[in-house]
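Lecture 7 notes. Example A: sequence first, then its C-alpha coordinates.
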Amino acid sequence: MKFPRLKLSDRITWSVMLWIFLNLLWLKFLEVFVPVWVGTIIATLAAVAFILFGRGPEEGPGDEDAPAPKTEGGKGRG
Protein backbone atom coordinates (compact mmCIF):
# COMPACT_ATOMS: atom_id res chain seq x y z
CA MET A 1 0.00 0.00 0.00
CA LYS A 2 1.42 3.37 -1.00
CA PHE A 3 0.58 6.33 1.24
CA PRO A 4 0.14 9.79 -0.29
CA ARG A 5 2.72 12.51 0.22
CA LEU A 6 1.56 15.06 2.79
CA LYS A 7 2.58 18.62 3.57
CA LEU A 8 3.73 19.46 7.08
CA SER A 9 0.36 20.97 7.98
CA ASP A 10 -1.40 17.78 6.85
CA ARG A 11 0.98 15.60 8.87
CA ILE A 12 0.34 17.74 11.97
CA THR A 13 -3.43 17.45 11.49
CA TRP A 14 -3.27 13.68 11.03
CA SER A 15 -0.93 13.29 14.00
CA VAL A 16 -3.41 15.15 16.26
CA MET A 17 -6.18 12.82 15.08
CA LEU A 18 -3.87 9.83 15.63
CA TRP A 19 -3.09 11.06 19.14
CA ILE A 20 -6.78 11.38 20.02
CA PHE A 21 -7.61 7.99 18.48
CA LEU A 22 -4.82 6.17 20.33
CA ASN A 23 -5.80 7.74 23.65
CA LEU A 24 -9.44 6.75 23.18
CA LEU A 25 -8.44 3.19 22.31
CA TRP A 26 -6.23 3.11 25.38
CA LEU A 27 -9.09 4.31 27.59
CA LYS A 28 -11.45 1.71 26.16
CA PHE A 29 -9.25 -1.40 26.21
CA LEU A 30 -6.06 -0.93 28.25
CA GLU A 31 -6.80 1.48 31.08
CA VAL A 32 -7.66 -1.39 33.40
CA PHE A 33 -4.17 -2.90 33.00
CA VAL A 34 -1.88 0.08 32.34
CA PRO A 35 -2.27 3.72 33.49
CA VAL A 36 -3.50 6.36 31.07
CA TRP A 37 -0.25 8.37 31.24
CA VAL A 38 1.62 5.47 29.59
CA GLY A 39 -0.82 5.56 26.70
CA THR A 40 -0.44 9.33 26.44
CA ILE A 41 3.34 9.00 26.17
CA ILE A 42 3.03 6.30 23.51
CA ALA A 43 0.48 8.34 21.55
CA THR A 44 2.70 11.43 21.74
CA LEU A 45 5.73 9.49 20.48
CA ALA A 46 3.67 8.05 17.63
CA ALA A 47 2.41 11.52 16.65
CA VAL A 48 5.91 13.03 16.71
CA ALA A 49 7.26 10.12 14.65
CA PHE A 50 4.47 10.61 12.11
CA ILE A 51 5.30 14.32 11.79
CA LEU A 52 9.05 13.78 11.48
CA PHE A 53 9.17 10.64 9.36
CA GLY A 54 5.95 10.92 7.32
CA ARG A 55 6.25 11.20 3.57
CA GLY A 56 6.67 14.84 2.62
CA PRO A 57 5.90 16.40 -0.74
CA GLU A 58 8.38 15.81 -3.55
CA GLU A 59 10.70 18.65 -4.36
CA GLY A 60 10.73 19.50 -8.02
CA PRO A 61 9.03 21.12 -10.98
CA GLY A 62 5.78 19.19 -10.46
CA ASP A 63 5.08 20.89 -7.14
CA GLU A 64 1.45 22.03 -6.83
CA ASP A 65 2.38 25.02 -4.67
CA ALA A 66 4.83 26.42 -7.22
CA PRO A 67 3.69 29.60 -8.95
CA ALA A 68 2.39 29.27 -12.49
CA PRO A 69 4.92 30.11 -15.22
CA LYS A 70 4.61 33.57 -16.69
CA THR A 71 3.73 34.03 -20.36
CA GLU A 72 5.24 36.62 -22.67
CA GLY A 73 3.96 40.10 -22.09
CA GLY A 74 2.17 39.08 -18.94
CA LYS A 75 -0.98 38.16 -20.88
CA GLY A 76 -2.63 34.85 -21.52
CA ARG A 77 -3.38 33.35 -24.92
CA GLY A 78 -5.11 35.39 -27.55
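Example B, a different protein, same format:
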Amino acid sequence: MLLRWLALVFVVLIAALQYPMWLGKGGWLQVRDLDRQLAAQKESNSRLKLRNDALDAEVRDLKNGFEAVEERARAELGMVKQDEVFFQLQQPAPQADPSISTVASGPPASLPIRPAADSPQPR
Protein backbone atom coordinates (compact mmCIF):
# COMPACT_ATOMS: atom_id res chain seq x y z
CA MET A 1 0.00 0.00 0.00
CA LEU A 2 2.83 2.34 0.85
CA LEU A 3 4.49 1.60 -2.48
CA ARG A 4 1.30 2.55 -4.34
CA TRP A 5 1.15 5.89 -2.54
CA LEU A 6 4.84 6.45 -3.20
CA ALA A 7 4.40 5.62 -6.91
CA LEU A 8 1.41 7.96 -7.12
CA VAL A 9 3.42 10.77 -5.49
CA PHE A 10 6.25 10.23 -7.99
CA VAL A 11 3.84 10.29 -10.95
CA VAL A 12 2.30 13.54 -9.69
CA LEU A 13 5.78 15.00 -9.11
CA ILE A 14 6.92 14.05 -12.62
CA ALA A 15 3.74 15.54 -14.12
CA ALA A 16 4.27 18.75 -12.13
CA LEU A 17 7.85 18.98 -13.46
CA GLN A 18 6.78 18.28 -17.07
CA TYR A 19 3.98 20.88 -17.14
CA PRO A 20 6.22 23.99 -17.44
CA MET A 21 8.31 22.31 -20.14
CA TRP A 22 5.30 21.63 -22.38
CA LEU A 23 2.70 24.25 -21.53
CA GLY A 24 4.37 26.91 -19.38
CA LYS A 25 6.12 30.14 -20.33
CA GLY A 26 8.95 29.28 -22.70
CA GLY A 27 7.61 25.77 -23.23
CA TRP A 28 7.74 23.72 -26.40
CA LEU A 29 4.35 24.87 -27.67
CA GLN A 30 5.21 28.54 -27.26
CA VAL A 31 8.61 28.04 -28.91
CA ARG A 32 6.96 26.34 -31.89
CA ASP A 33 4.48 29.22 -32.23
CA LEU A 34 7.28 31.79 -32.02
CA ASP A 35 9.21 29.90 -34.74
CA ARG A 36 6.15 30.14 -37.02
CA GLN A 37 5.84 33.87 -36.32
CA LEU A 38 9.55 34.37 -36.99
CA ALA A 39 9.32 32.60 -40.37
CA ALA A 40 6.31 34.72 -41.38
CA GLN A 41 8.11 37.93 -40.35
CA LYS A 42 11.23 36.95 -42.32
CA GLU A 43 9.05 36.35 -45.40
CA SER A 44 7.39 39.75 -44.96
CA ASN A 45 10.76 41.44 -44.47
CA SER A 46 12.17 39.91 -47.66
CA ARG A 47 9.16 41.14 -49.70
CA LEU A 48 9.48 44.62 -48.20
CA LYS A 49 13.24 44.64 -48.89
CA LEU A 50 12.60 43.91 -52.57
CA ARG A 51 10.05 46.73 -52.70
CA ASN A 52 12.45 49.11 -50.94
CA ASP A 53 15.26 48.20 -53.36
CA ALA A 54 12.98 48.97 -56.32
CA LEU A 55 11.95 52.30 -54.80
CA ASP A 56 15.60 53.13 -54.06
CA ALA A 57 16.55 52.45 -57.68
CA GLU A 58 13.69 54.65 -58.87
CA VAL A 59 14.75 57.49 -56.56
CA ARG A 60 18.34 57.25 -57.84
CA ASP A 61 17.06 57.38 -61.44
CA LEU A 62 14.94 60.43 -60.70
CA LYS A 63 17.85 62.21 -58.98
CA ASN A 64 20.53 61.43 -61.55
CA GLY A 65 18.90 61.42 -64.97
CA PHE A 66 16.26 63.27 -66.90
CA GLU A 67 14.99 60.21 -68.78
CA ALA A 68 13.08 58.92 -65.77
CA VAL A 69 11.60 62.36 -65.05
CA GLU A 70 10.60 62.76 -68.71
CA GLU A 71 9.07 59.28 -68.81
CA ARG A 72 7.00 60.01 -65.70
CA ALA A 73 5.88 63.38 -67.01
CA ARG A 74 4.71 61.78 -70.25
CA ALA A 75 3.00 58.75 -68.70
CA GLU A 76 1.39 60.27 -65.62
CA LEU A 77 0.88 63.91 -66.54
CA GLY A 78 0.40 63.68 -70.32
CA MET A 79 3.13 66.25 -71.01
CA VAL A 80 4.79 66.69 -74.41
CA LYS A 81 7.92 68.53 -75.49
CA GLN A 82 7.77 71.93 -77.14
CA ASP A 83 8.51 70.74 -80.71
CA GLU A 84 6.28 67.67 -80.61
CA VAL A 85 2.93 67.19 -82.30
CA PHE A 86 0.41 65.40 -80.10
CA PHE A 87 -2.02 62.95 -81.75
CA GLN A 88 -4.84 61.34 -79.81
CA LEU A 89 -6.18 58.15 -81.42
CA GLN A 90 -9.39 56.39 -80.50
CA GLN A 91 -9.59 52.64 -80.79
CA PRO A 92 -12.83 51.33 -82.32
CA ALA A 93 -14.82 49.09 -79.99
CA PRO A 94 -15.17 45.46 -81.07
CA GLN A 95 -18.61 44.93 -82.58
CA ALA A 96 -20.66 41.81 -82.07
CA ASP A 97 -22.98 42.52 -85.03
CA PRO A 98 -21.40 44.22 -88.08
CA SER A 99 -24.74 45.81 -89.03
CA ILE A 100 -24.75 47.83 -85.77
CA SER A 101 -22.59 50.96 -85.84
CA THR A 102 -21.42 52.39 -82.50
CA VAL A 103 -19.05 55.12 -81.41
CA ALA A 104 -15.78 53.92 -79.90
CA SER A 105 -15.78 53.71 -76.14
CA GLY A 106 -12.95 53.47 -73.66
CA PRO A 107 -9.88 55.59 -73.07
CA PRO A 108 -8.27 57.09 -76.16
CA ALA A 109 -4.68 56.22 -76.99
CA SER A 110 -2.19 59.10 -76.86
CA LEU A 111 1.02 59.25 -78.87
CA PRO A 112 3.46 62.19 -78.87
CA ILE A 113 5.28 62.43 -82.19
CA ARG A 114 8.37 64.54 -82.86
CA PRO A 115 8.72 66.06 -86.32
CA ALA A 116 11.84 65.08 -88.21
CA ALA A 117 14.62 67.65 -87.96
CA ASP A 118 15.54 67.81 -91.65
CA SER A 119 12.44 66.57 -93.41
CA PRO A 120 12.32 67.40 -97.13
CA GLN A 121 9.63 69.89 -98.19
CA PRO A 122 7.17 68.70 -100.89
CA ARG A 123 7.49 70.51 -104.25
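Note on Example B: The beta strands are 85-89, 109-113. Residues 82 and 114 are 9 Å apart (CA to CA).
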